[in-house]
Every structure is written in structure tokens, then in C-alpha cells.
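#structure-requests
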Amino acid sequence: MSFTSNIKSELCKIETPTCCKISECYGILLFGRAFSEKLISVSTESEEVVERLCHLIQSCYSVQPHISGGGTKRDYFTVSIDDEAKCTEILNSLGYFGFELGDSVIKYQNIEDECCKISFIRGAFLASGMVSDSNKEYHAEFPIKNAALTNEFYEILCEMGLKPKISARGSTHIIYFKESENIEDLLTTIQATNHTLELAGIKVYKDMRNHYNRLSNCEVANISKTVNAAVAQKQAIEKIKQKGAYETLSGELKFAAELRQKNPEASLAELVNISGNAITKSGLNHRLNRLVTIANNL
């Protein structure tokens, strides 16, 4: 099952309060496939969503919807009401008595209380919501065909303290969430608490993995830098000897040169320890760099 399917499965186990059943049912129907006086229909891949929606429709409107199946690449189910009288009755009960210019798409009398808004958003998610596998990316979205519905739903989400964004994908409007914290807030709002915790756990794991990767990369870079410096110093000392300039070096430079030649793979800190702390790390680094400069000038 996909991450989205698992979330919807969790949501379908929530006991909806009596006052919120209409709100949740309204959210599913409004964000479904069709919502008109001739046809009300919702398509989903989840049998649990089908079962929950049928229960809500029967409980709220005493109507038995029709269930059909189909699909080519993957199976899906369609819950529909195609009796015009029953469709009209449901729409009228929700406040739709024809549509005039300036009318809001969402009838707010159905979601006046905060608990009803939460159930409405949960219903919208059950109908059309999607959350990507958070092991791969942080992304949640509601694809919506109607521009006015998009804007009104966006305002409701903002009223609930969420931080969605809007974009377009062809003729479809997309309300989406990107940052993990914002997706966690959405899941918490619709009461998918188990998946909120799972998402938070994934984020902690990814943050820790990235932290250790950065440390590892830093350590590799430091090792590479140390090795390259040691090779350059060893080559410089060999060149100085080949050119017959070694005996002209000061005792301090000869000391550093011998320390490096006897310990070609040691770091500066290791060389200081080998010398019995006869020289500081910065002092030794200065002498070795001086040897490289002398070799380059020969």
C-alpha cells in the first residue's frame, strides 16, 4: 500500500462525532468526481473509503449509493448517486438551491464549528488528498478542478493555522504542502496522528543520516587534505636532496624534514606526538610549508 493509502486507512478508523458526519460526508462529496443535481460521484482506490462514504451517505441522507469498479493500470471504485431527485435532495440539504454569480462554492453553514471544519478537511483528503512517501520527498497536495473551490478551501486551511501553497498543473489547481513540518500539521489537523509520528520519525532519521554524512564527508576531505600535503612535503624534501641543497638547510628545517620522511603518512598532530612535543603543530606546519617553498624555488 502507498503512504497515502495507509493514511486514508487510518482516517477511516476515526469515530466521527454525530455533529461532524455531515461535514465529513460533504467534504468527500464536494471534492469527488461529480457534484451536481444529475450526478454525485466519488472515485477512489480505497475500499475503506468506499465503506466509510457509503455509511456516511446512508446515515446522513438515508440513501443507498451505487458502487462500481474499474481501472486499467490499477483498480478503483466509484460510489455514485445518479437519481436526480436524490441528488437534488442532498444538494438542497447542504444549501445548494441553484447557483448564482457571486455565490460561494463551499456552503459554510455546514462547517461552522472547528470540529466540523476538521471533519470537512478530512473528507476532502479522503476524496482527493495525496501525501508522497516521505522517505523520498516531503509533498502533500489536493488537486482541484474548480478555481473558486480552490481559493475558498485554501482560506479554510489558512484559518486552521496551516500553511498551504497554490500552483497549477495544466487545467488542475493544486493546493500543496512542502516542508515536513507543514505536512505534519496537516496530518495532525485531520487526526492522522500515527502517520504524523511516523513522518516526524522519518525526518529525525533523515536529519541524523545527513548529519553523519556531512561528518563523514568532512572527515574524508580532511584525510585527503592531510595525505596530499604529506605527499607534497615528501616530494619537496626529496627534490631538495636531489638538488644538493639539503645541507644548506637550518637545523630546524632538517628536523622537520627527517620527521616527515620517517613518518610519510602521519598527520601534523601525530608528528608532534612522535617528536615528543618538541615542536607545536603550527610551528611544524610552518617548517614543512617552508620546505615546499624552498623546493619550488629550486
